[in-house]
Amino acid sequence: MRIDLHTHSAVSDGTDSPTRLVMKAASAGLAVVGLTDHDTFDGLAEAQAAGARFGVRVLPGVEISCNQDGHEVHLLGYGCRTDAPDLLAELARLRNSRSGRLLRMVQALNKAGIDITTDDVHAVASSASSLGRPHVADAMIAEGYVADRDEAFRDWLDVGRPGFVRRYSCDLATGVDLIHRSGGAAVLAHPWARGADAVLTPERIAALVRDHQLDGLEVDHQDHTAAQRAMLFDLGGRLGLVRTGSSDYHGTGKTNHELGCNTTRETAHRELCTRIQLRGGALRR
């Protein structure tokens, strides 16, 4: 059984609709796919309906924007009840922060010579309910300023670049607690990618397990080296964590992250589902 537990649709910063994503998952031979759009549950109902048609089990998820010691980190929540008021309020706050910084990002880019507007960003974002830097990148691509999202981030949108603007993110430990209170399982997304290993040290991860019952680590990810994967797998084993693997698929929005390029073991998937059921979470939206 092939299982990919971290994907994104056009509801956030992916490029496929939830239905098309599930169709592609079926074509890629995946039996289970986790839809984990950024800070929103909005694509889950469509994805699960598509899963019923195409024979793919869709594990409901969300990727929450968090911070640890001022560094942005991401947290995957699986099986959360989508009517949990505290979690819904936090996700709304995160989405509002995303939307609120768009004007400031556009103004910063305008000052640097990139002539785009917030209307341009909304046009390329289409029906996305969770807006982010990738949509600004898409507006820059549409206007011919950059060739792809990678170039946009490298030269304009990443930390320290002319168009970068900080936004609100949830305290990491608070995020774990919110996921648990909604019945879900909390897994650190790509914990040692893009410099996050500086703050997500083995000691910090162990503290999250001890004090907040963190459930898992995403070990196999394209942004982890072979050495990092081996160390995270061993660390997760010592701490009793569920160890997952996934593509972090974004459609054409991210290269080298094709569906199923990394997968989760069946035993790990079963353990996640068991934890969700024991907490009273939801395996369907």
Q: Which oligomerization state do the chains in this entry correspond to? A: single chain
Uncertain regions: pLDDT < 50 for 5+ in a row? none
Q: Write down the secondary-structure element order.
A: EHEHEEHHHHHEHEHEHEH
Please tally the helical runs, counting DSSP H or I stretches of 4 or more residues. 11
Number of domains: 2
Strand percent estimate: 15-25%
Whole-angstrom Rg: 18 Å
Structural class: alpha/beta
- Give average pLDDT, whole number: 97
The share of residues in helices is 40-55%
Quick one: overall form? Answer: globular
Please report the first level of CATH classification, the CATH class of the largest domain: Alpha Beta
Main sheet properties: 8 strands, mixed
CATH superfamily of the largest domain: Metal-dependent hydrolases
CATH level-3 fold name of the largest domain = TIM Barrel
Say how many strands there are.
Answer: 8
Distance between the termini: 22 Å
CATH architecture of the largest domain: Alpha-Beta Barrel
Describe this structure in words.
This protein has 285 residues and is of the alpha/beta class. It is 43% helix and 15% strand. Strands 1, 2, 3, 4, 5, 6, 7 and 8 form an eight-stranded mixed β-sheet that branches. Helix 2 (44-54) links the parallel strand 2 and strand 3. It has two domains: 3-83 and 173-279, TIM Barrel, CATH 3.20.20.140; 102-157, DNA polymerase, domain 1, CATH 1.10.150.650. Helix 1 (18-27) runs parallel beside helix 2, helix 5 (118-125) packs across helix 6 and helix 6 (133-142) packs across helix 7.
